[in-house]
Fold these 2 entries.
Entry 1:
Amino acid sequence: MSVGNHVRAFVTPLRKRAVMSLLSHRVRARNPTMDAHPTVIWDYGYRDINALEIGKDVWIGPNVEILVYHRSPSSSVPGRLILGDGSIIALGAEIRAAGGTIRVGKGSGVGQYNVVVAANHQMRPGEARFHTGWDEERCGVDIGENVWTGAGCIILPGTVIGDNSVIAAGSVVRGTIPPGELWGGVPAKRIKSLGPAKSGE
Amino acid sequence: MSLIDYVSAFLKPLKKRATMSILAYRVRARNRTLTAHPTSIWDYGYHDLHAIEIGEGVTVGPYALVLVYHRSPLSSIPGRLIIGDRCAISFGVCIRAAGGTVRIGNGSAVAANSVLIAANHMIKPGEPRFKVKWDETFSGIEIGSNVWVGAGCVLLPGVVIGDDAVIAAGSVVKGTVPSGEIWGGVPARKLRRIGEQNAAEPESA
């Protein structure tokens, strides 16, 4: 091992931490009503802060990673993140808004250790899977208002969740979930209706 | 509470953080092309660095935990971790290479919040489960090349996954997955072969 390797091993994480702090600071400065834990990792292109639209009074818990790549060589679909007013991202969630738009509606909560992914790798036989473009047909995640996804859910690209719906803990969600229903399981299926929304909700 | 308690409560996490930094530093210095996020945690015996073999261009994401115990009082099988070239270990992944070898082939990826465990506790009635030896009959995890393990998967000890296979998100895998197939569910079963169209099931992330 050369001296260069040692210097690099020492400096690289420090540099990366400095970049992390800077990106996190910029988001905080722009969104003063947001309450994001100091351990939240913000990862986005320095010039792409406009791709993060964060509403009022958003709460983001510890050890969350929020990644927004507005442009990516792997997809022609831009990455965007829209967090509605009063939405919540709980402990350890990963939000990957690259190759599609992730929207979390007003007052919705993304549960602990959820993984929300905007674009997938493609599965074609005989290709190096991770070095080809992402799937551009089924991309983006749209979570409505007042939705609650339980702990440990995985929300796959192309998912649309209607207003007031609830996803049970540990579910894997794909496709469209109508408003006002409880869905759960791997893959998620309809469990029951949650009844008509009360007025004012 | 004595003054000592206050001092140790203050010092303990600092000491642990210092150890973490040194272990991560040693792995980085040894693997020049490794991109390990500053928040990734590397846990191994100081003299067991050789039990971690990392190929070229590997990335390890934020809050990932890579634990390699080459020797353990609870198992006679050595712990080893072998990661191939251009592998990606994503956000929050837990790799526990203790009591078995975890091997990941070239160009494979393990997506967010997945858990790979090389050895399990034994389930025998009336024994203190976490104090007795680990299971030595099912141990180690072998993942082929160009494999995609979806988000939130749990790979149990003894799992073998063939080349080009895909494990759907949120699966719990036990046993052997043949190459070129998509498996998913709890417990994971075959969904289809890659290239076949049968879009009723979720895919990875």
Entry 2:
Amino acid sequence: MKEYLKQFRFYLRLTGAAAISRRYFVMNAFDGALTALGVIIGAWSSGPIQPRIIIGAGLGMSLAMGISGFSGAYLAERAERLRRLRELERSLLVDLGKSIHGKAFKTVILWAAVVDALSPALTSIASISPFIMASRGLVSVDQAATLSIAIVLVILFSLGAFTGRVSKERILLSGVRMLLVGVITASIVFLLAR
Amino acid sequence: MLLVHDPIVKKVVLDVLKPHHPQIPELASKLVACHGVDHVGISLAEIDQNTESIKVQVEGTDIRIDTLKKCIEDMGATIHSIDEVEVVRRTQHK
């Protein structure tokens, strides 16, 4: 297992895929959280809501975003990486299919696709999770909606803080910047859905 | 009685063309793990847009050229030429 992990890290380093997967993670997790926020606030401010509807819509949305993320990233990443591999092969006049470059190529496109699929799916599932509690009668619908919005805002702040850490800027400021996007989105959806 | 067996390759200098990645220290670390290799020295000869030409000096107790070639090719590099070889006779006294 340790060997596999070491090899996997080597492939990421070799292809420069670590930066791309970080980008995919932030962009898609952000998408997932913000879409969930839109659904929750839109439904909540339109009138009384059924937790089952939010759960159904949320899970459907997570699945669709997961499938779309996986297939989109797989195809786009494959095309880009294959082009780069062919370019290298032309420069070296060899077939790199069996070399570490060929193996890294297959590994990183799959990795990018998994990151692209899981990040929006997980953040949207986390965002609607209070409604699962509400459907079990553990919290009220209003409490679930408040908790959901709080979870989305925490996710957005964490993503902002993460980007701040990557860019070596002020973590708090980056977190607040991303949080603001969430607050603005929530306000617009709230005003439009009323 | 003196028995003469196969010759042993002790040193090879290769002209190798490689992509920019893996970088030279990483390539050297992988090559030194190849069978019969004890010491690897790499120097950069030329750098291009996608590739680098390097001189690889390999020393060991029993270097197998085919295995070394495979190790190099596994890393996405290719041997242009074998520029220098040092071979000794494996002898056994009975």
